Amino acid sequence: MPHLRAFAPCLFALLLISSCQKEVTNPDNTSTATSGNSDECPSLQAFLVASESEQETQNNTLLQYFTLQELSDLRSNTCLAKSPTEDESGTTERASGAKGRFWTPGATIRVRFLNGSATLQQKVFAWATEWENYADVDFVQVNSGASEVRVLFGNDGYWSYVGLDNANIEACEETMSLQLTDQTSATEIRRVALHEFGHVLGMRHEHQQPAASIPWNTTAVYNYYSQQGWSRTEVDEQVLNKNSTETTQYTGFDASSIMEYPVPASLTTNGYSIGWNTQLSAADKSFMQLMYSSRRIKVRHAASGYTGKITFLVAGIYHTLLPGETLSVPVQSGANTLSVYEQVSGAWAWDDYSVAYGSNYKIVRTGAANNMTLQVE
Ligand SMILES: [Zn+2]
Asked: What gap in Å lies between CA 192 and CA 159, rounded to an integer?
């Protein structure tokens, strides 16, 4: 199988059906969307032709090694995650997103379909706008000119860039790949569109969020993916590793999230499994309502001499600050409790403080090394 590694990304895309979230190496945390006027890109048409040719070649290559049934089966086996590492503190909202990559509340996000029938485009876009009921953004479909999201239908699997990363992609490149056709079922189109546009809005895969609690049988996971040519490192990065707290804003783990893959029982230690989630969960909705709320406070890591990161919880969402970092975070109306994970009387625990919209705060160090206090800026 000399060419297996070369098309591993394609195989991965098939495996993780509504799957991959793409990363750019230096995300720009500003919210100014400036990318792409495809009309002014003379290579766009050539790009589309080349892309379709490349996809056909990849697909034919895959079929040298897998039957159509095997490829279909692979699509139902997806990603996993580890034991919980965070105290969920009774939170009821469960979801996660990429820190600093959410759009500014009220943002307009232009969506351009690079190919596909008008009917298919309309179906996908209609489900994308479902998110507008919760996240304060405005998706606008454009047929020419600049766009932040460019959707390519083809055989390159399912993936999307995350949040503001979409605004930093070359104008001639798609930002989202959808392996949908006019023959795809309505349920599948809904599931895929909601999932991929969740990525557009900054959401990450639920099974890799810091509080994920899937009881992986790691040996089974390694064995399973090794049969498909994956190294242990690839399995770690694509399946088992969780996103770090300092790069994620998240709630407790939500197995019903549209951002969660199905998990087969054969890959867990106790028969735990997750089926196909095809609609937004209650937590998906409440999380995005909050993350796109304009009712926010700022919180700053101002613990002098303390080089560790500080995690705090407010309005049901965990945030983690690096030394000197300031975050703008959503709060509920009225009084809120902000809990800082710190060392109180020698033990690590959540220490509660009262905060309110309209003030900004800093976390300072008092007394013992890891004993913090929240103060108004
Ligand atoms: Zn995904």
From this structure: 10
